[in-house]
Amino acid sequence: MGIGYAAIAIKAGMSPLQTVSMSFLVYAGAGQFIAASMLASSASLMAIILTQFVVNLRYFVMSTCVLNKVEESNLPLNIFAGHLTVDESFAMFSLSSESSIWTFMGIALIAWAGWCLGAAIGVVILDLLPVIVTNSFNISLYALFVAILVPSIKENKQIGILVLITMIMNAILTPIMGNWALIVSTLIGAGIGMYIVDDEYVLTGDA
Question: How many CB atoms lie within 10 A of CB 177?
């Protein structure tokens, strides 16, 4: 996925340094894919920033859960741990019986290094790959979302309905609002989800 992100970022006009630096400084997985895609479609800076805020808002919750679980830590370490918190590191630490901040840091640092290394590899090998291969990276963002959504949809049909509603709203609003449609449809979809998705399903951690 890191290589796929690099391919999209380079095609969007980002330099190799900007592409790799974003993985170090932003480190948002799907958020980076979206930012690069929006940059390629000439979205405004404010639209990109607001979209990143909405898409990555879940990391505030994840970071809070991680820090509530750890036994001993300090402010600088907490800030760095918050930066390293993504879906994968959060899931692995949540399922672990360990409560040490260093256990989390070990998990998170490996994931972070892997993502940054993937971006660096993508920058280096992009020009060496056949065009048909580099073009295929354009669907990597969609593949990522499918991989995330399918298990949840299988568990709860309400999630599937919510995804469908959000997709339809985004398709309707895009010709009218452009790149802002993603932000608006996401917020509306989240609001609808508060009423159609069972609280019990969300609280059990299956989502």
Answer: 15
- At residue 129, what are phi and psi to the nearest 5 degrees? -85, 150
Task: Kindly state whether residue 144 falls inside one of the protein's structural domains.
Answer: no
Structure tokens at 3: 């290589």
What are 129-147's pLDDT values in tens digits?
Answer: 777 776 777 676 677 667 7
Domain of residue 22: give its range: 2-138
Instruction: Answer positive or negative: Cα dihedral of 173, 175, 176, 177.
Output: positive
Strands (E), 22-94: none
Angle, helices 87-95/101-125, rounded to nearest 10 degrees: 150
Q: How many CB atoms lie within 10 A of CB 18?
A: 15
Residue 71 lies in a domain: yes
Cut 0.90: pTM above it: no
Amino acid at the residue 157: K
What is the spatial distance between Cα 108 and Cα 175, in angstroms, rounded to a whole number? 39
112 domain-assigned: yes
Out of 138, 170, 188, a domain closes at: 138
Same structural domain, 162 and 134: no
CA distance 46 to 57: 16
C-alpha to C-alpha distance for 198 and 121, rounded to whole angstroms: 42
- Count CB atoms within 10 A of the CB of residue 28: 19
